[in-house]
Structure to design on (496 residues):
């Protein structure tokens, strides 16, 4: 009976020791980092700081950064410049003195720079410092010399600031277009350019139209001889 | 009504207890320390972020407020009901059902252009059914024994976390714990072992104490949608370690199962 008691007691103690051994394990390091920018138009430089990361058991011995565009760096803080637009995953892996590692990621949006838009128009006159064009005169609008992009501009959309007699917007497409204004007034001429990455820029310029008779030849005679302002 | 039921229970208890015997029924309860190590590491992670935010906004001209850190979870109450059959004077087999609970919480606000809340509310419950064997190795009026067993533990874990970073924070933080709430469950097989001390008041009644070490670990808990419990948002499930010590005070009655009403 004593032998049985001893065996049972030993088994119990063994079970307790095994149980204790099961809880003796170390924990992975915890990754916590900040970024100065996660969305910006390229090119831009973002600063990353992982000094808030810590290892519950031991200390962090390695910080390994990858920036999603092929770039990589080591250390608790890192700067990285994104030159191409796209969505990038920043990945930080820390390794502690026990050889355990943890990883955390962050998404960075590097935005396509929008095209620069602008235009000029001719012919135009100037009176007392104000540019204007004349009614019924063919005006050439030129955007080719004024629009730039890091890629290629694939479309030029014009809107001349009014609707015609059919209630259709007065529009045109192309880098260089011509247009005749039939009524005097001030028109908000809008140019929207789109680049090959889908970036868009809208540029608006006021065009003053002045006119002397006849500015509009209407056989019905409903239109007054002198041009009036256009309700935009 | 409740008083009447209690009185009847006591009368019944005294009646069966008075005849004494090898069948022991006991109830007990006391403080329990549960490891919950991965949960506590996530709480440490919460606290690292809270301390950082407190330090940042302590010197920020446009933001007021500070948030208390989250106390570790693990200490709680343990309750147990057990039944043992003493096959000999020194050896018994039996089973018990145990229940343990622990919780922790914090809440606070940062007031800037908008009010941002930091809130953590975690509650853990476990129910275990354990088959056990116990041996008495010293009987000098006090009975000192050792026991061990194997059991199944079912776990409920309630989580509510809110981490709203004020817009005045100058950078963007990677690894802000995910907001949300849910109930996560899981189960596992585990082991228990410990020492028991019993002081017989009468042939049929004793009081005692039990110190138990439990070892059990659930690799992951999931909610009703099979989402893993991931408090710190690192896409890795937090395992639940039930390992830890429990100290109980117990009361036991001994029931005679023999036909002549005497303990064998």
């Amino acid at each position: 009976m004593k032998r049985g008691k001893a065996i049972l007691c030993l088994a119990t103690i063994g079970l307790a020791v095994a149980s204790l051994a099961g809880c003796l394990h170390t924990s992975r390091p915890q990754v916590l980092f900040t970024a100065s920018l996660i969305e910006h138009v390229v090119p831009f430089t973002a600063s990353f700081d992982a000094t808030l990361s810590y290892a519950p058991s031991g200390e962090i011995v390695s910080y390994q950064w990858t920036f999603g565009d092929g770039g990589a760096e080591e250390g608790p803080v890192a700067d990285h410049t994104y030159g191409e637009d796209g969505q990038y995953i920043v990945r930080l892996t820390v390794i502690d003195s026990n050889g355990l590692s943890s990883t955390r990621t962050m998404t960075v949006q590097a935005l396509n720079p929008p095209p620069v838009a602008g235009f000029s128009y001719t012919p135009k006159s100037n009176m007392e410092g104000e540019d204007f064009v004349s009614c019924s005169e063919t005006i050439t609008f030129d955007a080719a010399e004024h629009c730039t992009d890091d890629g290629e501009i694939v479309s030029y959309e014009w809107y001349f600031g009014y609707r015609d007699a059919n209630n259709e917007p007065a529009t045109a497409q192309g880098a260089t277009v011509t247009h005749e204004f039939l009524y005097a007034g001030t028109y908000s001429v809008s140019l929207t350019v789109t680049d090959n990455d889908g970036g868009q820029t809208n540029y608006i310029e006021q065009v003053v139209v002045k006119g002397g008779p006849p500015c509009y030849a209407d056989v019905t005679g409903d239109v007054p001889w002198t041009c009036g302002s256009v309700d935009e | 009504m409740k008083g009447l039921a209690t009185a009847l229970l006591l009368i019944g208890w005294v009646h069966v207890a008075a005849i004494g015997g090898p069948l022991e029924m006991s109830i007990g309860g006391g403080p329990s320390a549960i490891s919950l190590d991965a949960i506590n590491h996530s709480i440490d992670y919460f606290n690292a972020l809270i301390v950082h935010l407190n330090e940042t906004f302590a010197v920020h001209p446009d933001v007021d407020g500070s948030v208390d850190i989250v106390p570790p979870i693990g200490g709680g109450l343990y309750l147990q009901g057990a039944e043992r059959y003493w096959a000999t004077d020194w050896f018994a087999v039996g089973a018990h059902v145990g229940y343990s609970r622990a919780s922790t919480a914090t809440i606070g606000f940062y007031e800037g252009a908008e009010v941002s809340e930091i809130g953590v509310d975690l509650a853990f419950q476990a129910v275990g059914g354990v088959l056990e064997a116990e041996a008495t190795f010293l009987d000098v009026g006090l009975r000192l024994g050792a026991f061990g067993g194997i059991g199944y533990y079912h776990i409920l874990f309630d989580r509510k976390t809110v981490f709203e970073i004020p817009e005045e924070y100058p950078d963007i933080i990677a690894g802000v714990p995910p907001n949300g709430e849910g109930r996560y469950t899981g189960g596992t097989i585990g082991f228990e072992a410990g020492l028991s001390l019993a002081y017989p008041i009468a042939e049929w009644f004793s009081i005692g104490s039990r110190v138990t070490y439990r070892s059990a670990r659930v690799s992951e808990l999931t909610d009703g949608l099979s989402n893993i419990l991931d408090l710190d948002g690192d896409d890795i499930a937090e395992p639940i370690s039930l390992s830890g010590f429990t100290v109980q005070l117990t009361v036991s009655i001994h029931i005679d199962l023999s036909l002549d009403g005497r303990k064998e």
Notes: Chain A is about 10% helix and 45% strand. The domain at 120-210 of chain A is CATH 2.60.40.10 (Immunoglobulin-like). The longest strand of chain A covers residues 86-96.
